[in-house]
From TrEMBL:
Transmembrane segments: 52-72, 92-110, 130-147, 176-194, 200-222
Signal sequence annotation: none
UniProt keyword terms in alphabetical order: Membrane, Transmembrane, Transmembrane helix
Species the sequence originates in: Aminipila terrae
Name assigned to this protein: DUF1648 domain-containing protein
Superkingdom to which the source organism belongs: Bacteria
DUF1648 domain sequence ranges: 13-55
Length: 227
C-alpha cells in the first residue's frame, strides 16, 4: 500500500509543473521577462508561453523517473533475491523522483512568482534564495535515504571503497549520508542569512561542499573500518 501511494505521488507530482504553469499564465500579459543577467536584472522579454518549456522539461523528467521505476519494478528473475533487489531499486528511484519533483515544482513556482512580482510592481522575488533552500532540502532528504539504503545499483555513494563488501557499503552510506545532511543544513542556514546577490555563488559552492564532504567522510569511515 505504501509503495502504491509513493508511485501515485510521483505520477501526480510529475504533471504538477505543467498544470501549475497553465493556471498561472492565465493572469500574465503576453510579454513577460524571460531572461536575467548575473545581477538579477532583466535583459530579455518574450512570450509568456515560453514558461511551458521549463514546465515540460520538469514534467517529462518526472515521468521518465516514474517509467524507469516501473520498468525496474517489473524485473522478475528466477532467484527471489534478485527480484527483491529489483523492487528495492525501484522504491529508491521512486523516492528520489519524488524529492526531485518537489524541487522542480518549487523552482517553477519561484520562476512564476518572479514574473508575478515584476508585472505587479512588487519588487524583487528572492527566487535564487528559495531555489538554494529547496535544493539543499533535497540533499537533506537524499542523505537520509542514502544513509538507510542497502547495496543497490540505483542510488548511493558509489565508489570503489563502498563496493568492497556489504559492510563497507553500509558504513559508507551511513557516514556519507550523515555528512550530506549536516553540510546541507549548514548551507540552508547560509542561504537564509546571505542576500540574494550571493546566492549563485552559494548554489555552486553548496553542491561541491555537500558532494565533497560525503565522499571524504565515507572514505575515512571505510578506511577506519579496514584498520
Amino acid at each position: 500500500m505504501k509503495n502504491k501511494m509513493g508511485r501515485l505521488m510521483l505520477l501526480l507530482l510529475s504533471i504538477a509543473p505543467f498544470v501549475l504553469t497553465a493556471m498561472a499564465l492565465k493572469y500574465f500579459p503576453e510579454k513577460i521577462p524571460t531572461h536575467y543577467d548575473f545581477s538579477g536584472n532583466i535583459d530579455a522579454f518574450g512570450s509568456k508561453n515560453s514558461q511551458y518549456v521549463l514546465a515540460a522539461v520538469f514534467s517529462i523528467s518526472g515521468l521518465v523517473m516514474f517509467i524507469i521505476s516501473e520498468c525496474v519494478r517489473k524485473i522478475h528473475n528466477k532467484e527471489e533475491e534478485d527480484t527483491v533487489k529489483a523492487q528495492n531499486n525501484a522504491n529508491i528511484i521512486n523516492k528520489i523522483g519524488i524529492g526531485l519533483m518537489i524541487l522542480f515544482i518549487v523552482m517553477q513556482g519561484s520562476e512564476l512568482l518572479n514574473v508575478y512580482y515584476y508585472i505587479n510592481n512588487k519588487g524583487d522575488f528572492p527566487d535564487l534564495k528559495i531555489t538554494n533552500i529547496a535544493l539543499m532540502s533535497l540533499m537533506v532528504y537524499a542523505g537520509n535515504v542514502i544513509a538507510k539504503s542497502k547495496m543497490n545499483s540505483a542510488l548511493g555513494i558509489r565508489t570503489s571503497w563502498s563496493f568492497k563488501s556489504e559492510k563497507a557499503w553500509s558504513v559508507s552510506q551511513r557516514s556519507g549520508g550523515k555528512a550530506m545532511i549536516i553540510t546541507s543544513i549548514l548551507m540552508i542556514i547560509a542561504a537564509l542569512i546571505l542576500p540574494e546577490a550571493y546566492q549563485i555563488i552559494l548554489l555552486f559552492s553548496g553542491v561541491i561542499l555537500v558532494t565533497g564532504s560525503s565522499l571524504i567522510v565515507s572514505y575515512r569511515a571505510v578506511k577506519k573500518m579496514d584498520d
